[in-house]
Design goal:
By secondary structure, the chain is an alpha+beta fold. The chain has helices spanning 27-44, 68-71, 142-155, 160-163, 180-183, and strands at 48-50, 60-65, 82-92, 98-103, 113-120, 123-128, 134-139, 173-174. A 5-stranded antiparallel sheet has the order 1-2-3-6-7. The longest helix is centred in the N-terminal third of the chain and has 18 residues, at 27-44. It starts with 26 loop residues before the first helix and ends with a helix. The structure holds zinc ion (ZN). Zinc ion binds next to helix 3.
Length: 184
């Protein structure tokens, strides 16, 4: 199976990044999308990936948070969350309490552009996993909540740059060496 390079903002094939995605119709369809997402995320690295990023306009995203050492300093409570697939997710109860943190995106200059985004500390999410089991969870870890908000935004056709506050544009940072095409 082919590994899909994430589609890019500013290109024709990245136009889906600004469209709203549709619900998955069957668990088999969900599973197939999860398999493709996992292949790309494992290969290119990162903590999350959403279906529109690989050209599929469906409401599926995955997170894979295991690089505890990289985020440990800012998020000391970060446990090993590991791999989770979210199919047809619904978010509610976004907390009023927010925090600001740097984000990048595999679809924005190949993961090499970073900027500060304010996100809710916690949220509630309902979703189906790749086995078709329904879950309802409170996400209280601010880092996990951040990744979910970023990935869920992809299903709504929103990228992190659109979530930035005007005064935070001065935080934009381009790290050319993080370009995912160079890491492999
Ligand atoms: Zn992204």
């Amino acid at each position: 199976m082919e590994i899909i390079l994430p589609k890019q903002v500013g290109t024709k094939e990245g136009e889906l990044l600004f469209e709203k995605s549709e619900d998955v119709e069957s668990f088999q369809e969900g599973r197939e999308i999860v398999t493709l997402l996992k292949k790309s995320l494992d290969y290119y690295g990162g903590v999350g990936l959403a279906a529109p990023q690989i050209g599929i306009q469906k409401r599926v995203f995955i997170v894979d948070i295991k690089e505890t050492e990289r985020y440990g300093e800012k998020y000391p409570q970060l446990k090993e969350i590991g791999f989770v697939a979210y199919i047809n997710p619904i978010i509610s109860d976004l907390s009023e309490e927010k925090n600001k943190g740097m984000e990048g995106c595999l679809s924005v200059i190949y993961g090499s552009l970073f900027g500060a985004v304010e996100r809710s500390d916690s949220l509630k999410i309902e979703y189906f996993d790749e086995q078709g089991k329904k879950h309802t969870e409170e996400i209280r870890n601010p880092f996990h909540a951040r990744v979910i908000q970023h990935e869920f935004d992809h299903l709504e056709g929103i990228i992190f740059l659109q979530r930035m506050n005007r005064e935070d544009f001065s935080t934009l940072l381009w790290e050319e060496e993080r370009d995912i095409r160079k890491q492999r």
